[in-house]
Design brief:
Strand order of the largest sheet: 1-2-3-5-4-6-7-8-9
Distance between the termini: 84 Å
Number of helices: 11
Number of strands: 9
Largest sheet: 9 strands, mixed
Oligomer: single chain
Radius of gyration: 25 Å
Helix content: 25-40%
Order of helices and strands: HEHEEHEHEHEHEHHHEHEH
Strand content: 15-25%
Mean pLDDT: 88
Shape: globular
Structural class: alpha/beta
């Protein structure tokens, strides 16, 4: 009888032991399940020592129907840089990695800086992830803007994050786009980084020597960033002028430029196209006006061009 009782007690203890061991495991699975509800597109999950201060932006109802946008900080060359990312709702629903456009804004410092809607507007129309840097020296970003100097590292760092940290980014057809000064940054990025598979250059500055001569109102600004005139700092101007190394651009290019653009001359786009078409697939879209930047109708052109098979 005592033996039977001992066996029963042992069995009860064994059952209780299994129950005790199983409780933490079930709890852990439950926590993981809750965490997984946001899926790969829950951007808050990507907070790290290099990506932080993540803030979800409140968008208008129209934009919110199409995408979600976050403003965040990241480290580049040890300094804090501000950035935006917009993610299509269609991608989040599919739970599959989505293609991405890295957008390079124009201007310098506060002129032309990104707003809360900048990446969202592109994302909503193109249905691509759109990520963009404010560059250093703007909107609380540390260090000084160099107009195509070390601030190029801020762009390259975003590509690093897309490839190594953001699992929701499909890198197979990674596109970099830019307007005006951002077009200059786009050409420079494509020259340096083989992960760039295609580029879009809108009203792009492709010859800083011409840019300096054509814009008397910008000469002091350019001088302050580069530390001299084109004659005094020739190598620095050439480094920022894609016209001098256009043959190094091997990926498909879409150029969009207005014929009467007063800020970046149409001649720069013409000369760049003439060089690029010798070495790569280049599409040139022109407008008979003086608009500096993108036209509403260009969005359809860009969408069609992005959907083409990569050469």
């Amino acid at each position: 009888m005592k033996k039977t009782i001992s066996i029963i007690l042992a069995a009860i203890l064994l059952i209780l032991s299994f129950a005790a061991c199983g409780a933490p495991e079930n709890s852990e699975k439950s926590e993981k399940s809750e965490s997984a509800k946001g899926g790969i597109y829950n951007f808050e999950d990507y907070k790290s020592s290099e990506v932080f201060d993540i803030e979800k932006i409140k968008l208008s109802d129209g934009l919110a129907e199409k995408c979600v946008t976050y403003k965040f900080s990241y480290l580049s060359d040890g300094g804090i840089i501000k950035a935006y990312i917009s993610i299509p709702n269609s991608a989040a629903e599919s739970e599959k990695p989505c293609k991405c456009i890295l957008y390079n804004r124009g201007g310098n410092k506060e002129i032309g800086m990104l707003t809360d809607n900048s990446t969202a507007n592109m994302c909503a129309v193109l249905d691509y992830i759109v990520i963009a840097s404010q560059y250093r020296g703007t909107d609380g970003s540390e260090m000084a803007d160099q107009f195509g100097g070390d601030d190029l590292h801020d762009v390259i760092k975003l590509i690093d994050l897309c490839q190594n940290d953001f699992s929701f980014v499909d890198m197979t057809d990674f596109c970099v786009a830019g307007e005006s000064r951002g077009g200059m940054m786009t050409y420079m990025t494509a020259r340096q980084d083989s992960r760039v598979k295609r580029i879009i250059a809108v009203s792009a500055l492709s010859d800083l020597f011409k840019g300096y001569d054509e814009r008397k109102d910008m000469q002091d600004v350019i001088y302050s960033y580069i530390g001299g005139t084109p004659k005094e700092r020739k190598a620095e101007y050439e480094k920022r002028s894609a016209i001098y190394w256009a043959d190094e651009i091997k990926v498909p290019v879409l150029i969009i430029h207005s014929k009467n653009d007063k800020q970046v001359s149409f001649k720069q786009a013409e000369e760049m196209y003439a060089k690029l078409k010798k070495t790569t697939d280049c599409t040139f879209i022109t407008h008979d006006d003086d608009v500096h930047g993108i036209h509403k109708e260009d969005l359809k052109t860009i969408t069609d061009w992005l959907n083409k098979t990569t050469a």
